[in-house]
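agent: user wants the structure for Membrane-associated oxidoreductase from Streptomyces phaeofaciens. delegating to structure tool.
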Amino acid sequence: MPYERHALTEKILKDAWDKAVDGTLLTIDPASQEQEIPGDFLAQVLQGEKMEKAPQRVMIAGAHITGGFDVKSSKLLCPLELTDCVFDKSPNLDQANARNITLKGCTFPGLRGWELKVEHDFSLEDSSSSNLVDLCGAQIGGQVDLKGVTLSAPGPEVLKLNGLVVQREMRWSGMTTHGQVTMIGARVSKQFICIGTTLVNAGGIALLAQGIKVGSSAYMKSGFSASGEVDISGAEITGRLDCRNGTFRSAGLEQGALRADGIHIENDLICENGFLAEGGVNLLGATIGGSLRCTGGRFINPGSLAIRAARAKISQDFECKRGFRAEGQVLLAGCKIGGSAKFQGGQFIHPTDSALDGTGMEVGQNVVLGKDYPGEQMPAEGFISEGEVKLVDAKIMQDLNCTGGRFSNSQRVALNAQGVTVRDVLLENDFCADGMLDLSGSQIGGKLLCSGGQFTGSRVSLRADGMTVQREAQLDDGFRAEGKVHIRRAQFGAGLSFDGAFLAAVGGSNSLTLRGSSIKGRLNLVTREKPPGAMDLRRVVVTELYDDKAVWPDRIKLHGLVYETLREDGPKIKDRLEWLKSNGKYEPQIYRQLAKVYQVTGDEDLARKVLIAEQDERRKSRPGFHGVLAWWGGWFLKATVGYGYNPFRVLMELAVLEVIGGIVFSILRNDIHPVSPHVVGDYQPWLYSLDLLLPVVNFRWSLWFYPTGAAVWWAAAFTATGWALATALVVGLGGVFKRK
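agent: tool returned. relaying tokens verbatim.
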């Protein structure tokens, strides 16, 4: 035996040597005074120096390894298995080549294994180190097992694995570290398991694993706890990243509790069922080949970003359902989701700003911000937001379903969906917005359904200027808006209904504004009650206007309103004329529009009544002295020819005057004399009267006979009356043709 004795007996040395050759276990009694094995002796055995037979395996339990154990740049001829051993100094395995290394339950003041190469497994199971463990650049052909390891160090880092290459799994289950763990650019060919792992580095980085590559799944779950930032940005994980029931605490740090920006995961990212992040979770630009599942997870970072997933790409669903709670902003701007965004039952709390920001988000299926219905055994839970929900310019291939959701941002915008592109929008039943809903510029390829939706907490409850709805829009059956409803310059492909709606805006403002909108189909304005504010229908174009006088507001702005038909059993002509007066001022177009509709349906008499009513309002509307003259002139035209719309009334008036004239001029025949003795024929009072009344037609009786006495005045009166009636007829008919 070519080793000089230290404090160890000849017997212990011989036993250690023989056991190595046989490949059997050397167990040292903890009560024995002879526990020490020199580190250099152990190194010599492993290298087979001065040995007649090569060692098969070094297996020692309970030894105290004294001095330095240094096998730097050496080749170890056999596996090393040490159990419950204590090292005086840090083992040095730098650039060593080994078949298998197991240090189970051992204690050492640090360990060096820079560029270490192990053919099979490397294990520190249940061991503890009081200084840095450095395995940078190591290459392990099997698995790395750090189960139950406890690591601490006086410096900032306790474990360095930069560039580590592991051909099988890496197991950290139950590992506890006090300080930073660094594994930048490490590669693990199979699973990376951190179940029950505790990483403590409060105020700093607990795990720095930028650019790590995992060939299967990574697990940071079931009791995994990190006090300090976990940075896996740029990581590539072939399977899933499972963080369910994991805890990540790094509140107050700029980068957050979990930093995974630019990460690439080919399967799911799971942050559900008890997941807790105290500090932000950063998924900026992440690529997730499966789903992002956060149901039941809690993301706590008040006043800042709870989840940052801007420009992330998620191939399947993003789930934040029952039990999910985010205190802080969830940022999804520019995010692309191949499946659905399922947020029913989730809580998004960030009252000082946007609680959920999906500006420019693209979703391949549905966005669900409503109720979660788990089944008969559990009550439904609805989506809750405190702060603005932004879906500005989002593109949703199927539906935006907010039925049962509660959006709170009082006196501000609760749900901002400006410019959203979507199939159907569902805001029905228990939907409640305490703040404004903004659908301005949205493109809805199907339906807008708001039946039973409640809109409160803002001066403007609903704003949808420039919105396009290809099919019907239903704001009916219990729809309630306590503020204004602005739907200006919108387009509806199959009708707009307010049947049974409550429009409660007060304060002298418009309860409903549809100015400039185009509606193919029916516009139903039969609200549940009479709106307290005005209704603005200016420049609205609609196929059918369906209303009820019982719920007409006191003021309806009608200028430019164009409609093809009216409700068949709707208000009568008398009520319609009052409806036109509710416009507040004379507008010729609103009368002519109503008359046109009556004409199209064959109600010429009703059309004339409307046009006559228009002229009545016209002569009332002119101010000043000219207005007085116009009033009297209009009165005369109405009395004589119905403003030209009843021209045959002149014939009746002429007939009456002819009868009167015939009688009068018969009585006054003694005052009528021929102009010369050569006049042929006898005086005819009836023809004389008719000749006076018709200024254009000349029967010559007024030329052959002249009046004297009282007949002079009667002749003058009949002549003037004739001219007046003729003028009225010409002026009235001319005005009609001009208006047409």
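agent: one observation worth passing along. The radius of gyration is 48 Å.
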